[in-house]
């Protein structure tokens, strides 16, 4: 009995960002009239689903001790392909090609990081620049518009009252949470990120797991590109700019360590929602957009500072 | 670096009669879920070596970390030269002349030896630029005193663990310290380096420096120390004058019973050959190594650090590519190109350095133990927590692991208990061939004999065990046969029954 309770506690640990999120929700509920309005929360969910889906993959890659900066460019690539190819291939095959491009790029990133030993930061920085170039070449700097109305309808549709895009995000988050806590692959991601040498000694096939994770984040970015373009009914070559930064911000807010080995999907979910709530709330308070950026930057640093403080005290670790 | 002149004998005698150099009173320290120290008092006199003893997890390192400003105690006071002082950070401790040589290496692997030694106090010239000339000269001066075989400009990451330990010790000698704490300094040193360290300690003593010496090796404690304090479960069990007591007395204070030193039961007849190595070579690390391990047999591999023992193990385990020779398992030649292959063939290696190769420090105890056998505790890629827990419970019990719970990150365990997690991780694999590299480094005397017994028991269950160790008593205690290595070559092979210490020493020094 005590044991089930204990294990329950382990899987119910609430990442600290959720407390901050609650505080934000309370803050905006009091200060604005519209924040608690019925439609607003689904709004937030739709707004955050794009960054959110990428953040799920990014969390896994970062726990694994790597990073992927090319996600923003992949968003544009996948969106352009899945909209631009609809005429020739039909909608569904075009979407499959779009998603496939993300997975293929992830495979490439992963193989390069594994086989050459070049840091993931550098490899994916190169990919970020190069892929954006490819997008411009492919689109000829043009925006594409989806002629298939079913495509843009999908972005607006709902399942049982929940917007489809939000549902996709939440279901995906649940799956990824499960993967990270209950599978061998998830456990290995933590081990490799925590101490790669020890993982190798333990017989973990480090390279294989790394590549799979890059493919996963590639898929997530491509999926985000597709869902974003269904929302807009179009794709532009500049789609997804700065998304890598927002994604990493969300993941890090959620408690995942840049150095790897620690983090959780639950935390990332909190980080993603926090960004969404802050944006939405400040928007409702009519804070000018540029001030919103300043506030977000400050909050990122402040939250991580507090987190580091609290955790150090608690663990009785080195005081520096 | 200038050093104070030695005290005359009278001065020293006088100093000894004054208030103790250092006094800790009523120190209590709790970590979440653990009371690591409970009202501990401890003092060090001028020019004495005060040994601190206790089981793994007794609180020795914690007490010294409180002294060195790494941890803040919940309560308690520190007096230095009779004056109450506060030590709130390692920097402050250093400034007051309190130096801690850490149990776990804490060096920056990418920096040079000299930079590591002077980290935090690099000599500078104008504009704050580092004066490399003075830095290297000062470092060389200290290194000469330690008589080491590496240079001040070598990269620390390239040094062996033993040499890294020497760098750690060199750090303590930068300032003229008042109190130096050595936390298991010899755990990875060879005999020659030990002699140098003991000379250094004798020198410090002459200068009136107070020394705290933590070790699990009784012989060292009895040669070096003037007084012994025993900690048990975070409480002081007593302080004795070394000359008034003996090993047995101290052991009883430590673990509450005497050690069972009864002779080992004769091993049953070993079974068929499990591992056979023929003409194994790898660069100039080792050449032409041939030996075999039988089921049910424990073979010791003894030699100086640098003789190629670890490298041989790593090659068998697939971490290094061999450039000649053959490995056979159960008679069939195998091609092992990495740890996954090795594990598939039933070979396990518990590595030498727990922090780098053995453990994921931020991960909890249970997950660390099961990491080497995730295939066995999962079905179709899904983890079976019950199976993981069963492995943890079994080996935590067999090794008498002292951890607050399975959920504790191994980082928070005491050094010896971390080592037990590494062992558990590989014992749980139930391998056909088990290689353990320095299995009892940092493990207390009680647990040590338990681990030796466990190794014997595993052999009796039909596993072929290779024990690599630089401790002769250990090799003699567990092995049926002993392989002596010298400079990457197999110098001699002994049957445990007719080996003598002299013959062993000769064999590993190339005589
Ligand atoms: N940072 C920490 N966080 C939580 N618990 C800790 C921490 N450091 C030590 N402990 C706990 O405090 C107790 C005493 O540990 P300590 O390292 O002082 O033991 P020790 O006597 O040095 O043992 P060893 O001989 O194995 O080195 C142990 O139960 C350990 O788990
Ligand atoms: Mg210790």
| Total count of domains of chain A | 1
Low-confidence sequence ranges of chain A: 5-11, 313-320
Distinct helical segment count of chain B:
18
Number of strands of chain B: 22
Please count the beta strands of chain A (DSSP E, at least 2 residues each): 4
What would CATH call the homologous superfamily of the largest domain in chain B? P-loop containing nucleotide triphosphate hydrolases
Helix proportion of residues of chain B, in percent? 25-40%
What is the helix tally of chain A?
A: 15
What integer is the average pLDDT of chain A?
90
Which fold name corresponds to the CATH topology of chain A?
ABC transporter involved in vitamin B12 uptake, BtuC
* Secondary structure: helix percent of chain A: over 70%
Would you list the SSEs of chain A in sequence order as H and E? HHHHHHHEHEEHHHHEHHH
Rounded to an integer, what's the Rg of chain B over CA atoms? 24 Å
Report on the structure:
- The complex is a heterodimer of chains A (320) and B (511).
- With 320 residues, chain A is an all-alpha fold.
- Chain A has one domain: ABC transporter involved in vitamin B12 uptake, BtuC.
- Chain A has 15 helices and four strands.
- In chain A, the strands form two sheets. In chain A, strands 1-4 form a two-stranded antiparallel sheet.
- Chain B has 511 residues and is of the alpha/beta class.
- Chain B has helices spanning 9-17, 60-67, 90-95, 113-117, 132-146, 161-172, 191-206, 218-224, 247-255, 309-316, 339-344, 354-358, 365-370, 385-398, 415-427, 445-460, 472-478, 501-508; strands at 22-31, 34-44, 49-54, 75-80, 83-85, 98-101, 179-183, 210-214, 227-232, 235-241, 273-282, 286-294, 298-303, 324-329, 332-333, 347-350, 378-379, 382-383, 433-437, 464-469, 481-486, 489-495.
- In chain B, the strands form five sheets. Chain B has a six-stranded mixed β-sheet with strand order 6-7-8-3-9-10, with helices on both faces. A six-stranded mixed β-sheet of chain B has the order 16-19-20-13-21-22, sandwiched between helices.
- In chain B, a hairpin with a 2-residue loop joins strand 17 and strand 18.
- The longest helix of chain B has 16 residues, at 191-206.
- Chain B is globular, with a radius of gyration of 24 Å.
- In chain B, 49% of the residues are buried.
- Classes of the chains: A mainly alpha (320), B alpha/beta (511).
- The interface between A and B is medium-sized, with 30 and 37 residues.
- The complex binds adenosine-5'-triphosphate (ATP) and magnesium ion.
- Magnesium ion (MG) binds next to helix 2 of chain B.
């Amino acid at each position: 009995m005590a044991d089930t309770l204990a294990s329950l506690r382990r899987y119910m640990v609430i990442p600290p960002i959720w407390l901050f999120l609650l505080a934000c929700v309370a803050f905006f509920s009091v200060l604005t009239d519209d924040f608690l309005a019925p439609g607003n929360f689904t709004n937030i969910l739709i707004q955050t689903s794009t960054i959110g889906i990428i953040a799920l993959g990014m969390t896994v890659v970062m726990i694994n001790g790597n990073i992927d900066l090319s996600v923003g460019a992949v968003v544009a690539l996948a969106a352009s392909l899945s909209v631009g190819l609809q005429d020739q291939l039909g909608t569904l095959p075009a979407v499959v090609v779009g998603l496939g491009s993300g997975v293929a790029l992830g495979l490439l990133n992963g193989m390069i990081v594994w086989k050459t030993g070049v840091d993931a930061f550098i490899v994916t920085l190169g990919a970020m620049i190069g892929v954006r170039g490819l997008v411009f070449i492919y689109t000829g700097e043009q925006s594409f518009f989806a002629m298939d109305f079913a495509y843009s309808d999908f972005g607006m549709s709902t399942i049982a009252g929940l917007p489809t895009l939000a549902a996709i995000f939440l279901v995906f988050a649940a799956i990824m949470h499960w993967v990270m806590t209950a599978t061998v692959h998830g456990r290995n991601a933590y081990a490799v990120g925590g101490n790669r040498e020890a993982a190798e000694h333990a017989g973990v096939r480090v390279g294989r797991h790394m590549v799979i994770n890059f493919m996963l984040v590639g898929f997530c970015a491509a999926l985000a590109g597709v869902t974003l373009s269904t929302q807009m009914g179009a794709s532009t070559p500049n789609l997804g700019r700065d998304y890598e930064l927002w994604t990493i911000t969300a993941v890090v807010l959620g408690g995942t360590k840049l150095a790897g080995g620690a983090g959780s999907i639950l935390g990332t979910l909190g980080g993603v929602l926090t960004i969404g709530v802050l944006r939405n709330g400040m928007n409702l308070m009519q804070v000018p957009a540029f001030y919103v950026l300043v506030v977000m930057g400050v909050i990122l640093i402040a939250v991580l500072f507090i987190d580091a403080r609290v955790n150090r005290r608690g663990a009785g670790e080195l005081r520096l | 670096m200038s050093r104070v002149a030695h005290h005359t004998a009278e001065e020293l005698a006088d100093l000894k009669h004054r208030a103790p150099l250092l006094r800790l009173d009523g120190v209590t320290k709790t970590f979440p879920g653990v009371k690591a120290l409970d009202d501990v008092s401890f003092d060090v006199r001028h020019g004495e070596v005060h040994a601190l003893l206790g089981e793994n997890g007794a609180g020795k390192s914690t007490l010294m970390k409180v002294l060195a400003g790494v941890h803040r105690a919940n309560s308690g006071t520190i007096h230095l030269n009779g004056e109450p002082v506060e030590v709130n950070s390692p920097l402050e401790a250093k400034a007051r002349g309190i130096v801690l040589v850490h149990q776990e290496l804490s060096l920056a692997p990418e920096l040079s030896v000299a930079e590591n030694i002077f980290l935090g106090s690099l000599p500078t010239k104008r504009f704050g630029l580092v004066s490399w000339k003075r830095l290297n000269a000062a470092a060389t001066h200290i290194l000469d005193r330690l008589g080491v075989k590496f240079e001040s400009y070598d990269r620390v990451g390239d040094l062996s663990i033993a040499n890294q330990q020497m760098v750690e010790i060199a750090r303590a000698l930068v300032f003229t310290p008042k109190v130096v704490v050595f936390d298991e300094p010899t755990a990875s040193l060879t005999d020659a380096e030990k002699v140098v360290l003991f000379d250094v300690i004798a020198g410090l003593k002459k200068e009136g420096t107070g020394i705290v010496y933590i070790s699990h090796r009784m012989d060292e404690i009895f040669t070096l120390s003037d007084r012994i304090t025993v900690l048990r479960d975070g409480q002081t069990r007593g302080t004795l004058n070394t000359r008034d007591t003996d090993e047995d007395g101290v052991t009883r204070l430590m673990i509450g019973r005497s050690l069972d030193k009864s002779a080992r039961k004769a091993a049953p007849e070993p079974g068929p050959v499990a591992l056979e190595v023929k003409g194994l070579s790898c660069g100039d690390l080792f050449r032409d190594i041939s030996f075999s391990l039988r089921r049910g047999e424990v073979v010791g591999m003894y030699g100086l650090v640098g003789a190629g023992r670890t490298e041989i193990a790593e090659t068998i385990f697939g971490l290094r590519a061999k450039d000649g020779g053959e490995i056979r398992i159960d008679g069939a030649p195998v091609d092992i190109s990495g740890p996954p292959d090795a594990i598939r063939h039933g070979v396990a290696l518990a590595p030498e350095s727990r922090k780098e190769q053995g453990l994921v420090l931020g991960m909890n105890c249970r997950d660390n133990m099961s990491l080497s056998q995730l295939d066995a505790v999962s079905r179709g890629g899904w983890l079976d927590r019950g199976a993981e827990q069963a492995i943890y419970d079994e080996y935590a019990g067999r090794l008498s692991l002292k951890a607050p719970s399975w959920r504790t990150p191994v980082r928070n365990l005491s050094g010896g208990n971390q080592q037990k997690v590494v062992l558990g991780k590989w014992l749980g694999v139930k391998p056909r061939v088990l290689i353990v590299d320095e299995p009892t480094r940092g493990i207390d005397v009680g647990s040590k004999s338990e681990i030796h017994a466990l190794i014997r028991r595993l052999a009796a269950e039909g596993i072929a065990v290779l024990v690599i160790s630089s401790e002769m008593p250990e090799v003699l205690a567990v092995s049926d046969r002993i392989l002596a290595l010298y400079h990457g070559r197999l110098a001699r092979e002994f049957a445990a029954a007719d080996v003598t210490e002299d013959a062993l020493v000769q064999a590993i020094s190339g005589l």
